[in-house]
Design a protein that fits this description.
Blueprint: E1 2-3, E2 9-12, E3 19-23, E4 31-33, E5 36-42, E6 46-55, E7 58-65, E8 70-72, E9 75-77, E10 80-82, E11 88-93, E12 104-114, E13 118-128, E14 135-138, E15 154-157
Parallel strand pairs: 1-4, 2-5
Antiparallel strand pairs: 3-13, 4-12, 5-12, 6-11, 6-13, 7-10, 7-12, 8-9, 14-15
Length: about 170
């Protein structure tokens, strides 16, 4: 019998970036759904969402589109479930899955079957998709004397949009 999550903490994940966490132990014979749920943004045109869970004890993985994983009448409400007696779980969603992969926000929850505290790592990876990624850079320009300076540039983008900074000039270090 699942015990409901007591709060509403949400942690946004970046595609491919592992996130660690911990879940307190359940009462004997129960599963404890962690207070923290994770989200991953899937852009339009994505071809796959893969969520991997690694834990130190028996943990289960739940995935739901558009809403937090919930417990109704003692049943965990999720679109996808990976419930084995293993310490590792995985869910893969594609356009051919039922329900099919779609653009939007997915919620991820972890259940601890115990015994003891569960130390976990969750990784959600989105493949494909164009999304609506845009970015801003601040400042957009800077004048620098020949002696050089140390400086910073801020890059801001929407959740789920990955970016990398590189330099094509040997005198600029990123």
């Amino acid at each position: 019998t699942p015990t409901p999550p007591p709060g509403g903490i949400t942690v946004a994940l970046t595609s491919g970036a592992p996130q660690t966490g911990a879940i307190s132990p359940p009462p004997p014979g129960y599963v404890h759904i962690g207070e923290t749920q994770y989200t991953i943004q899937v852009p339009s045109g994505a071809t796959q969402l893969k969520v991997d869970l690694n834990g130190n004890i028996d943990v289960d993985l739940y995935l739901r589109y558009g809403a937090r994983i919930a417990i109704q009448n003692g049943v965990i409400v999720a679109d996808f479930k990976s419930e084995t007696t293993a310490n590792n779980e995985s869910i893969t969603v594609t356009p051919g899955s039922s329900p099919a992969l779609r653009a939007g926000l997915y919620y991820i929850a972890v259940g601890n079957y115990g015994p003891g505290d569960a130390n976990i790592t969750v990784t959600a990876t989105v493949t494909g998709g164009s999304g609506n990624c845009s970015f801003t850079i601040s400042p957009t320009s800077r004048n620098v004397a020949a002696a050089g300076i140390l400086g910073a540039v801020n890059v801001t983008t929407s959740a789920g949009c990955n970016w990398t900074a590189t330099s094509n000039a040997n005198f600029i270090t990123v």
